[in-house]
Amino acid sequence: MSIGAALGIATSGLANINRQLALLSHNVANAGTDGYVRARGTQTAVSAGGLGLGVRTGVTVRDVEKMLRGELTAQGARADGAATREAALSAIDALHGVPGDGTDLAGLLGRLTNAFSTLAGDPANAAGQYQVLHAAEGLAQGLNALAAETLRQRQAAQDGLVADVAALNDGLARVGDLSNRIMALKAAGQGTADLENERDQAISGLAALTPVKVLEQENGDVLLVGAGGLSLPVHGAAAPFSIAGATTGASSYYPGGGLPGVLMGGVDVTAQMQGGRIGAHIGLRDADLPGFMAELDEFAYTLASRFDAQGLTLFTDPAGAVPAGGGVPVQAGYVGFSLTIQVSAAVRAAPVLVRDGTHAVVGSPTGASAFTPNPSGGPEGFTGLIRRVLDFALGAETQAGVAQVAPNVAGLGPGGTLAAPFAAPATLAELARDTVTAQVGAAATAAQRADLELSVQTTLKARYADATGVDTDAEMALMVQLQAAYGANARIIAATQSMFDTLLDMVR
Fold it and tell me: Residue 338: its pLDDT value, please?
């Protein structure tokens, strides 16, 4: 081997070691950076005629675990979607209070029942009459608060959907820009590790919005596929997805009821946008929350109509009427009634009506029996109406031997597409209990799911960090090896220099 060849080998070795030391320093400096994947240099031996001529330094690559990365990306959609749903339902759960403490619907109805039971022992007692009025107002206000919060959360879901669709467009544009830069560098034979890390982080942000499967291309580009095989374009249109803003009301629904869908190039793809925050917003807006509202509306209507059927118009809408049932869909006449239900203005003005009744009832063999209100100046101990309330309005029968008309549990909501997750109960107390149980149970399940998905995500992040992150101890050990190799190559160069000096001296 010639002296020049030895010098070339040692020089290329030093250059490669310098590059490795620079990468090592970069790794250590980013050891705590979220999403950073350890980088390593590549090198190839150079030879000619079977003789080694040194080493060529290649591009920087990442020690990435693609399968684990895909699992982590998919889990991001599940975790963020579950957290979004849990946050919305927990706000409603908080208004239900703690079952059994008297602040949920069942407890508020129980207070009204107890107030009527107390009044039955002393019908002329004005304080007892006011106690019935107070309990009725508490029940109506409890329904109002639950319905208002449900509607508020539904509007938040709509607004969140608009914001997240905009974020999806921004994220896709960011991935497209990074991919263009990566492709250009790869075509020029340069490393792209840092840009690929940045793109992975951008894709993680997209996965929080909607499920994303990444298909890497040989030229450095990526294809992104969403739920249901929906292509997520990273090149081309600046904003491929769109959704209009809207105000959600009790009567609004999707599709066809005034609420917009998610469009891609003008085509409605709402049904395919499942998972992630966007999917959670869609589910909350179009199923979970309108289902809650429908259950509250059914309770409000059943409450008002059963009291009214016995001769006491205790609960009405703001116009002083009890909404009509029997529409198409089944709740057409009282959609949103839980938002506006109130104690009758006539009863508020004259609480004695909770003893005497507000109107006569014409008997029916399939409905309530006949009733005549206590006339003005009638018996102070009149208990006819109170007994009808306790035995029938709050009971399983509308008169002795005639079952109450069951509340609706299917075909609910303004579009008639929703259903309650329980069978039709016989009494108001059972309906209140089942409504509370269903809604509190849904919130509890959402909270458990969110905790589980977060736990899985945390575990995957730890596994991914262990597999691809920077181990500073290993990096320091490598530094020692590189320093030793640096010293060896430096000695070769020094020896070569000495040999050159000797040759020059001989020439002189």
Answer: 98
Pairwise CA distance, residues 355 & 378, whole Å: 11
- H helices of 188-229, in order, are 193-209
* Average pLDDT for runs of 10 along the chain of length 508: 57 56 53 56 58 56 71 92 96 83 89 97 96 98 97 97 96 95 91 89 94 93 91 88 95 95 94 95 97 98 98 97 94 97 97 97 95 93 97 97 96 96 96 95 95 92 70 55 57 64 65
The kind and range of the H/E element at 172 are: helix 126-187
Listed residue (480, 309, 505, 280) closest to 392, CA to CA: 309
- State residue 477's pLDDT score: 59
Beta-carbon count within 10 A of 164 CB: 26
Q: How far apart are the first and last CA of the chain?
A: 24
Task: Quote the DSSP letter at residue 381.
Answer: T
Q: Look up residue 462 and give its two tokens.
A: 């730890």
**How far is residue 279 CA from its own chain's centroid?**
7
3-state secondary structure (DSSP) of residue 445? helix
Q: Which amino acid is at 157?
A: A
CA torsion 31-37-43-44 (nearest 10°) is 150
Q: Which helix (H) or strand (E) holds 499?
A: helix 472-507
Give me the residues paired with residue 60 across strands: 41
Residue 276: CB atoms within 10 A of its CB come to 28
Q: Is 397 helix (H, G, I), strand (E, B) or coil?
A: strand
Query: β-pairing, 267-268 with 263-264?
Result: antiparallel
Record the tokens describing residue 253, joined without a space.
Answer: 């629904």
The pLDDT assigned to 26 comes to 52
Question: Cα(367)–Cα(404) distance, rounded to whole angstroms?
Answer: 8
Contact between residue 63 and residue 40 where contact means Cβ atoms under 8 Å apart: yes
User: What is the per-residue pLDDT across 346-387, written as a single tens digit (0 to 9) for each?
Assistant: 999 999 999 999 999 999 999 999 999 999 889 999 999 999
Q: Could you state, in order of their start, the residue ranges of all structural domains in the chain?
A: 3-62+470-507, 70-455
Any idea what DSSP says for residue 258?
B
41, 23 Cβ separation under 8 angstroms? yes
Q: How far apart are CA 35 and CA 468, in angstroms?
A: 9
Look-up: residue for tokens 């507000």? 358
pTM of the model: 0.86
Read off the tokens for 282. Answer: 């869609």
Cα distances (angstroms) measured from residue 80 to each of 42, 89, 283, 299: 37, 14, 14, 33
Segments in 210-288 forming alpha helices (H): 276-283
pLDDT in tens, 20-31: 555 555 555 555
Contact status, residue 132 vs residue 116, Cβ threshold 8 Å: yes
Give the Cβ contact number of residue 396 at 10 Å: 14
The C-alpha atoms of residue 205 and residue 83 are separated, in whole angstroms, by 15
Q: Tokens at residue 209, please?
A: 């919005």
